[in-house]
Amino acid sequence: MKRIGFLTFGHYQSGRGSAVPTARDAILQTIELAVAAEEIGLDGAYLRVHHFARQQTSPFPVLAAIAARTQRIEMGTAVIDMRYENPLYMAEEAAQTDLIAGGRLQLGISRGSPEHALNGPELFGHVPAAGETPADMARRHTERFRRAIAGTGIAKSDPRMTGGRSLSLPIQPQSPGLSERIWWGSGTRATARWAGEQGMNLMSSTLLTEDTGVPFDELQAEQIAIFRQAWKDAGWQHEPRVSVSRSVLPIVNDLDEALFGNERLSTDQVGILPDIGNPQSRFGKTYAGEPDVIAEQLARDVAVCEADTLLLTVPNTLGVNYNIHLLTTIVEHIAPAIGWQRPL
After folding, report:
1. Helix axes 59-69 and 87-101, enclosed angle (nearest 10)
2. What's the CA gap between 248 and 250, in Å, rounded?
3. Which residues pair with 208 in a beta bridge?
4. What residues pair up with 249 in beta bridges, in sequence order?
5. Which residues, in sequence order, are bridge partners of residue 243?
6. 79 preceded by cis ω (within 30°)?
7. Contact by Cβ (8 Å): 333, 250
8. Any coiled-coil ranges, and where (predicted)?
9. 175-201 residue pLDDT tens
10. Is 83 left (phi over 0), alpha (psi -120 to 50) or beta?
11. What is the mean pLDDT of the chain?
12. Cis peptide before 214, with omega less than 30 degrees from 0?
């Protein structure tokens, strides 16, 4: 395991027990947690994007703020729903953020997941073309976004403005290397294969939108193997990256026990999600318990062993101080067991 980062959904709510009552609190606390994560040695800060929900929505201002406040860690998304995105405007936003970050931006994108809003992308002005599915539209947006950040000419110039010359104008600014730091959030083995064929890194979460009856980590490891083979077969020259997400809740004091003690017996869950073509989905277990027990369990998690990056989902509504405590415990007592080393 080369890198470990945290992943926040940016929830905010004013109910009892929440340390994040407002959207402003969620945004500012995300930035503060990223700064603290760098100080304790973690490698990344990632945001999950959801629309029409009291969660993180527009990621680039937050990512730019993290970039300006940190020196070493990566910052990114896990993931952006490409059904909602204007790919050219997103290319400008991404490049500017990456320039602030000095090339540390890692963008996870995908077709998106089931959500609260009906026809949400349509309200943002995005409707599938005739014969397209929403997933097809997300891939079309992705293709145009990737062409834009790679410097491909997008617009024809007006000869009146270019001395009579006819030029093909790329999106500006450009940030060199960003095109190799795009990840596809894959929920199935088939979409992992597609990501490898397209030359995008693989991002796999705690949810797989298919089920074959095997444990979650084994199915995810199969997904990773399919991705890497597709990458190799496609002839891509640079080394791909693979991230997996896990919910890891070490219990070292009475507060931890009160909050998460009932998660000690967590197991994989199988269920049916709306707006998903597959009949069943498999949810990965939560790792909760004493640090040495979790360390042993994660060391046996075959997908964690296959990935180079682990994203830790954090209970962000408990506030910055609690999550620093949680992440510090992981860094000091769990991460070394899966081969991670603190950066020098």
Report:
1. 10
2. 6
3. 282
4. 288
5. 203, 309
6. yes
7. yes
8. none
9. 999 999 999 999 999 999 999 999 999
10. alpha
11. 96
12. no
Longest dimension (CA), the chain: 74
Residue 282: φ, ψ to 5°: -120, 130
What pLDDT, on the 0 to 100 scale, is given for residue 32? 98
SS3 content of the chain, % helix, strand, coil (to 5): 40, 20, 40
Helical pair 134-149 and 87-101, crossing angle rounded to 10 deg: 50
pLDDT at 1: 82
Contact 44, 76 (CB under 8 A): yes
Query: Which CATH number fits the domain 3-338, given the four candidates 3.40.1710.10, 1.10.260.40, 3.40.640.10, 3.20.20.30?
Result: 3.20.20.30
Contact 216, 282 (CB under 8 A): yes
> What torsion, rounded to 10 degrees, do the Cα atoms 22, 24, 30, 31 define?
-160
Give Cβ neighbours of residue 325 (< 8 Å, ≥ 6 apart).
none
Would you list the domain boundaries of the chain?
3-338
Question: Is cis: bond before 240, omega within 30 of 0?
Answer: no
User: Using CA atoms, how far apart are residues 12 and 17, in angstroms rounded to an integer?
Assistant: 11
CB neighbour burial string for 166-197, b if at least 16 within 10 angstroms, e if fewer: eeeebbeebbeebbbbbbbbbbbbebbbbbbe
Residues with Cβ within 8 Å of 256's Cβ and at least 6 positions away in sequence, in order, are 249, 250
Pairing of strands 44-47, 3-8: parallel
Phi then psi dihedrals of residue 191, to 5 deg: -75, -25
> Measured between alpha carbons, how far is residue 38 from residues 74, 226, 324, 344 in Å?
9, 33, 11, 12
240: DSSP letter: P
